[in-house]
Amino acid sequence: MEKTPRIKDIAAAVGVSPATVSRALTGTGLVAEPTLTRIRDAAASLGYRPNVSARNLRTQRSMAVLMVVRDVGNPFYLEIFKGVEAAAREAGYSVLMGNTEDDPDREAEYFEMLGDGHADGMILMTGKLPTRETREAAPDRPVVVALEMIEGSSFPHVLIDNEAAAREAVEHLIGLGHTRIAHVTGPIPEGMSKRRLQGYRQAMENAGLAVPEEYEARGDFGLKSGQDACARLMSLASPPTAIFTASDSMAFGVIGKLSDLGMAVPGKVSVMGFDDLFLSEAFQPPLSTVCQPRADIGREAMTILLQKMTGGPVPADAVIMPTTLQIRGTTAPPTTT
Amino acid sequence: MEKTPRIKDIAAAVGVSPATVSRALTGTGLVAEPTLTRIRDAAASLGYRPNVSARNLRTQRSMAVLMVVRDVGNPFYLEIFKGVEAAAREAGYSVLMGNTEDDPDREAEYFEMLGDGHADGMILMTGKLPTRETREAAPDRPVVVALEMIEGSSFPHVLIDNEAAAREAVEHLIGLGHTRIAHVTGPIPEGMSKRRLQGYRQAMENAGLAVPEEYEARGDFGLKSGQDACARLMSLASPPTAIFTASDSMAFGVIGKLSDLGMAVPGKVSVMGFDDLFLSEAFQPPLSTVCQPRADIGREAMTILLQKMTGGPVPADAVIMPTTLQIRGTTAPPTTT
DNA sequence: TTGTATGCGTTATCAA
DNA sequence: TTGATAACGCATACAA
Of A61, A169, A262, B14, which shows the fewest CB atoms inside 10 Å? Predict the structure, then answer.
């Protein structure tokens, strides 16, 4: 009990061969009953724990998965991580967090970690198509894409219908009677932002409402970009009476700026977010927003990844998770109708 | 280039022994110049990546550390994680996140992961003293405690002076002229909450102010407990004019409840939080709070852990990180003076 | 059902 | 400066 015990220590204690101990402990079911329990008891009393490095080397697996996001600092990913982690734990896997900060080199690095045995599979949420070179650092390791859509790739996808969700959000504002509705977008070359913008445009077009070019204000999902966008919007000759932002963080920025400008929310201007962060409900006034089932997305992505890793069937099409509109305190009918 | 190349493939390509290749690639500096570059070139052109399982097995290290928190879902830990991760990356380590959810079994599990080679060291932020049995799952693996204080343990600690920080926060309220100041505590058997409570009491006592028993309202750091505590406080015969909460989340709950009750912040009641979450500044009104240098705490803890792992010197006493008072929009002089 | 022998890919020891 | 060899701890093919 001095050093951490090895298989051969158990073998010696019980009086069998190391191979038998290994079989007994990995549960291959090929060990007779009397020996089986004796081995288990000995392992327990010695406090045996299999050495993961040795096992990984022998089995060529790490029992770990990599979850790669573009910014760990964004609390948005927390709930997703919890979903991923819960599903992983149940299957005996650990989860490694990767943070690219939108740096292609970092992304390549994580593919390399996949190739060198750090992890057996990856859940990718960066929204970038890895270059062929990057991809080849881990040619045949399973990858599942979540949240984002990587066009033209054969990876399984788990995400929401960003376009429809955005459309519904804007339709809610239209339903309240708003006609001058602006949108603060996410970073634009990217799919998620583009789809939300599409949804906004569709809703406006369906309602026969005009979208002046200046009503599509560019943001980057961050709080500050919401403030800036709001300042630009409210200085227009014909400022909007409602603002739909592509993230809750930007909605907070917008509301902060409106408050600075002395415009009441939702009295003067309605604001609608997207994400439903954990603080959105506690915000004053509570934020109306689009709720994504984040934990479920994480869990689903991990479940599919597990299937891929074990050679099971994986869905051929993208898995679409349902969103729900959370109507709270920042949206109201316009006052100047 | 079919399969991922191994050391012996490089050796064969260059015409040297595997041992030499290993030496060249690990940079032990014992390889002559002409061969050195030839090996490096060959490794690069073949796209060689060392197999981590084999290396870990041989070196008896995993080049990974475990960061264990009581609730990954709490965004508070994000900044700390970033600090830990940055320092770890620089030293070539990966970071595994562990989540105990206050379950002693889970905590024991992470100590076992430490013992079985999943990680070489651990940063513990759960505030619980591991039982001797738990601890023995990884007898001589380095552990650093952050945020919390585990009395009577010999682990290095990195944390803030909770007592002093709380005292300063309350002194700010006193300085504004408040006399009826209540405190919403964290979960109480725990050190961090107790120290903040002590700081509150000290400041009150130093100023000669009374602390009715009901002014110490019990919370659990969570948003909802802030709402509940606030409801109790404001229904007192002599309700407070200022409330100091032991976390920002609870401050948000308090403000929400005050808003429900029609009491303006800071017009009727001042509110002071503790943590400075990323949304606290964007909150309306912006939250006055105590700012902890979270990323620095993470970085410092990781730095000390690295020193312990490499056998370097570690600070004998707890490392105290500085806090700063963030006075923003939720604190003001009392109206009824 | 169990034991023997081998190899996973790397690094460390020893000799040359 | 380099090469041969062993060993890290485990799981498996094969033999008994």
Answer: A262
